[in-house]
Amino acid sequence: MSEMFTHDILILGSGIAGLRAALEISMKSDGKVDVGIISKLQLMRSHSVAAEGGTAAVMRPEEGDSFDLHAWDTIKGSDFLSDQDVVYRFVKRMPDEIRRLDRWGIPWSRKPDGRIDQRAFGGHGYPRAVFAADKTGFFEMQTLYDTLLQYDNVTRYDEWFVTSLIIEDGVFKGVTAIDIPTGEFHIFKAKAIIIASGGIGRVSGFTTYSYTVTGDGVAMAYRAGIPLKDMEFVQFHPTGLIPTGILITEACRGEGGYLRNSKGER
Fold it and tell me: Considering 45, 47, 128, 237, which one is annotated as catalytic?
């Protein structure tokens, strides 16, 4: 008979979103909520590691940046389709998140005077992208993982593939999953789930996304009858190295690089 695992909350995905969610739960509950993180990958192989460029935050309002400017750039960049209340909430929280990561030990790149450095990114009216060399995602992942190690309420299941959500009478009960190395089938019971398993980037033939970004969590939610929202909005980068699609960071454009066609036209 398949072994059954039980947790209070399950998190699908061990990228930046999944680890940050596990940390928030652990901090808010003082480590008293039992969390299980299930991922089809080894922890540091999440696609979050591939993020190079930076994370936007208003860190120098005294030099001309502001929450309103950051929100405006974001809303304008979304062609005014974004939820503006959500935009303002994120914009106002980001400086504290950057400083929190700093306290947790992330090696942000810094100016000669010791302040956290920032650079321009596409769509930014002010250089507000905070970065850690050219490995921002890697260092954010490593920092979140290192911080999470201080909590013993979190259990990781690396290289497990979740096949379906268990829904009974409209209530989430758990998931079914396969232990990839052994091929064994198991059931996980939980009171709640956070799906942080990434997007659907590999739906495109040529893309900067890794081969693991296959929309598993989105598909499972759809099959379980959970409504999906804004599925037409898929982030992509226009600068991928031919033929592999390896990302040429957005920072290249932020620093003044131009996109030209085969005729040399911008």
Answer: 237
